[in-house]
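Database export, one record per block. Field names are fixed; values are copied verbatim from the stored entry.
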Amino acid sequence: MGIDDLHNECVSGKWIPLLVLRDRKTKEVHLPVFNLQDIAYRFVVRNLPKNWKHGCVHLADDDIITVIKRGWQFMPMDFPRKVNEHPDYEISFEIHEFSEEPEFKVS
């Protein structure tokens, strides 16, 4: 799926696959969150295959409430940690439905 397809199919449909970290033991879902888009971009570059297309999305207040209701844990990061070989977490994806068309930035 290309970036144009992702935007046309997912963003316009108000849903998008989000990268999450799943605890290997408890299966709890942790959503990495970043204050700066640059840190989020460097996190993805460090942890996903180089040929994968990726982008960043802004979570609105309604989206934060939805994440909390789903029982996900926020994992604030102020630097791009390497987690793809972490013994406690595995990288996974969860579909998130937004209340309105998300602000999606392609890197």
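Remark 1: The two ends are 15 Å apart (CA to CA).
Remark 2: Residues 3-106 form one domain.
End of record.
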